[in-house]
Amino acid sequence: MENENIGYPTFGECMKRVRAIDDTLHIMGGKWKAVLLAHLCYKPMRYSELLKDLNGIAGKVLSRELKDLEMNGLVIREVSDTQPLTVTYRLSQYGKSLKELMDGLADWGLQHRERLFSASKLEQPVSVEREA
Description:
Elements: H1 11-28, H2 33-42, E1 45-46, H3 47-53, H4 59-71, E2 75-80, E3 86-91, H5 99-121
Antiparallel strand pairs: 1-3, 2-3
């Protein structure tokens, strides 16, 4: 029985990783933050562009989400001295470290979408594989 756990992390290591995931989800959680970060992974954007591209987000919510991301050091707010003032948001250097995670989420989402689409074409339910 002792050899069953060979190759698996200890309980303490597992809990450390679970806490780290919880911390990440706390910062990126909610309906809009991950999508907002994904948009900013591609290019800096003005507030009005984000409001338009994030279909269904309220202006007040967008402002709050941007402030949270700025407070966590992921997003930089740049105000240009133009008439009228323009505000642009971009990922900070630290925020750019999330690009690999965003790419991974996008890749998984594309694969999942394809899997569901393929299953619906065959008119068969997608089976859930369970580990024994």
